[in-house]
Amino acid sequence: MLQISEITAHEGPVAKVRNRAGTERAIFVAARDLLAEQGFQGFGINAVARRAGCDKQLIYRYYGGLDGLIEAIGADLGTWVKDRIPEDTGGMFLLTYGDLMEKLSIYFMEALRDDPLVCKIVAWEVSQDTPQVRSLSEARTKALGKWLEKMRGSLTPPKGVDAATTNAVLFAAIQHLVISAAVSGQFAGVALRTNKDWDKVGSAIRRLVRAIYG
């Protein structure tokens, strides 16, 4: 998988590379970073080529144009959960479904805070209805569902609890808080700027999960 950390696109165009693999990687990283920074409004062939430091014809040759780049970014998002959220439980022995959801909720919150592009996609999901947004959203949602199912294993929620709906509400709340933090640094008067602020959010999430799942 393409590792964004291998190339930094924030300091101007990426140095030109001679081999195809390196050029493809430079184009992909430039496209992903540009999309995260400017959204689809600033997402064009010329802009990506400038950011990647390559001829725009190479984007058509390697990706078939912008649609191909969107597909590549979507495929990368399909592994976002697995790559950013550890499958081990950090030494925590999971006895109940509540143990699981407590751990996964915090993992999800931290991973989302660390990825500007995924945060933007979450925001686009509720504000834009375009083929590009739907493609990226479906890839992310599918990956999250598979991850939850794999991590759940044989653990089951308490009887009488609609886990699917409850978890949707829980993860939606986490997503909204992270987006609000990026936009204004607060939500409903609750500060979302410092690590101490997010520690409070984490504590509240744990209490909610325990109140629901025991």
Gist of the model:
It comes from Neorhizobium phenanthreniclasticum. The chain has 214 residues and is mostly helical.
Describe the structure.
Strand 1 and strand 2 form a beta hairpin. This protein folds into 2 domains: 4-73, Arc Repressor Mutant, subunit A, CATH 1.10.10; 80-213. Mean pLDDT is 83; it is low at 1-17. It is 66% helix and 2% strand. Strands 1-2 form a two-stranded antiparallel sheet. It has 214 residues and is an all-alpha fold. Helix 1 (20-38) crosses helix 2 (45-52), helix 1 (20-38) crosses helix 7 (116-125) and helix 7 (116-125) packs across helix 8. It is built from 10 helices and 2 strands. The protein has helices at residues 20-38, 45-52, 56-63, 66-77, 80-84, 97-113, 116-125, 131-152, 163-183, 195-213; strands at 186-187, 190-191.
